[in-house]
Known about the structure:
The protein has helices at residues 8-21, 43-53, 59-72, 98-111, 123-152, 156-160, 178-188, and strands at 81-82, 90-91, 163-171, 174-177, 199-211, 214-225, 232-246, 249-261. The model is unreliable at 1-35 and 113-117 (pLDDT under 50). The strands form 2 sheets. It has a 6-stranded mixed β-sheet with strand order 4-3-8-7-6-5. Helix 1 (8-21) packs antiparallel against helix 3. It is an alpha+beta fold and 266 residues long. The protein has 2 domains: 8-115, no CATH class; 123-261, Nuclear Transport Factor 2, Chain: A.
Amino acid sequence: MPNKAIGRPSYIVVEIKVVAINPSHKKNDTRAPGINPTAPVNFNTFAKTQARTKPDTRSVTIAGIMRALNASGVLPTNAPQRGPNTGGEYHTPPIANFAKAAHKTASQLTSNPCILPSPATDDGAWEGIMANEEAEKNAIRELLATYCFHLDNDRFAEMAALFTEDGTWDTAYGKGTGHAGIVAQARSIGTPGAPRPRRVHLTTNIVIMLNGDTATVESYWTVIQNSAGGPKIGSGGAYQDQVVKQNGKWLFRYRKIDRFLADGLM
């Protein structure tokens, strides 16, 4: 409560000191160990320390009080005040150049972006932005997974349809551009007419970097296939993709396949 005998300026000083009195804030005391606990506290330093250690609840409050004090044009009382130390001793707060220190501290508190509230976007709008970004990334992950299903089941036309009209499929065995070129390249891999073991492509470690209606994607791939000795890892490597959103659908613009895990490779 304000001290009516002292007047309104004293009320402002008390508001600042309330933050310091709380014993839970003792760890933020700006006095070095061993200093007399009844010694005056430098409120300018204390305010900045509180702002650094408790930015979400301290900086805006302290800055507001500092500005109010500075705007009043009245210096705080020189009467003894109960100290912020746990013993509750009285001392006289430092008031020399207080208005100047208040203005400087308020400016420091509100000019440092690490102690300001979040940007102009409110919580609801920010959550909407994050949800939309995650939805786009999920659609891209779906594209990568669908590609594997089509490829593993020799549905090359459906696989090619996952690319743009001028998209490129760049493999370790050659390159195909355009839907017809991609289908031809897929059919050329392996021995024509020879049965191929059942296989599955697994895509992992997917990293997506969105940029509006385009994105770059990096991931690992592994092929597990049947063999006379049972399932084995046939090969593996990395995908480097450029994808684009056209007519509400994500498509490959360029897929580079790096094959670096295989028999005979080091």
